[in-house]
Amino acid sequence: PRAGGRDKVHVVANGVDVESFRPQAPDDARRHRLGLAGKELVLYAGTFQRYEGSDLLVRAIGEIVQQSPQAHRVIVGGSAGLAGGSGPMTPEEQELRAAATEAGVLDHVTFTGRIPHGEVKDLYALADIISYPRRLTLTTGLTTPLKPLEGMAMAKAVVVSDVPPMKELVEDGSTGLLFRAGDHLVLAQKCLRSEERRVGK
Fold it and tell me: pTM of this prediction?
């Protein structure tokens, strides 16, 4: 009613700039600078709110490397302190690093710290799999993220949790893989399955 008529209301679906996010060759020099040569990369780029499930990523990598020793988790975002530089870490970052230490997987996780948004696509290009493991909360049950669409636009394998908005973006087994929200063991299984499909095993 406040709009004054249906003809004045337009629904604009979520989307990304496919001219900016499109398939591109990985930058081997960047890969070497980050110490990622020869590794199979499962990447997350985003914030570290607990509902994003970032701790599930580091717990899952411990399961993945048992079957795929070259697997490596890359977590993009956060502070310089998280990436080993100077400055304090946020409580969420401290929790994430503690989860990696507790799981014994620090050698299999790279924290890049915050990078310019324009460089995110260059890190996507290095990835074999892009994963977004959101937990189910009131917020995640209503909010559709854009990051999985960026990965899909770059023709990357995508593994996401089965919260309702993610299911709007990803058709399980077709445009990506879904896993049960909150379950890092199933997340690990789906990442391994995605890798097998990627290399045609």
Answer: 0.88
Q: Which amino acid is at 27?
A: D
CA–CA gap between residue 69 and residue 67 (Å, rounded):
6
Q: Which of 90, 88, 92, 61 minimizes the C-alpha distance to 74?
A: 61
Residue 103: C-alpha distances to residues 49, 114, 122, 168 (Å): 20, 24, 28, 32
Burial of 171 (0-12, 13-18, 19+ CB in 10 A): exposed
- How many C-beta neighbours within 10 Å does residue 117 have? 9
Mean pLDDT of 113-125: 92
Here the tokens at position 130 are: 């892009």
Give the dihedral of Cα atoms 34, 119, 64, 68; nearest 10 deg: -60
Question: What residues form DSSP beta bridges with 113?
Answer: 76, 77
**Is the pLDDT reported for residue 201 higher than 60?**
no
Query: Are 177 and 194 within 8 A, CB to CB?
Result: yes
**pLDDT tens per residue across span 25-81:** 999 999 999 999 999 999 999 988 899 999 999 999 999 999 999 999 999 998 888
Identify which of 13-17, 23-27, 83-87 has the greatest average pLDDT.
Answer: 23-27
Give the side-chain half-sphere CA count within 13 A for 18. Answer: 6
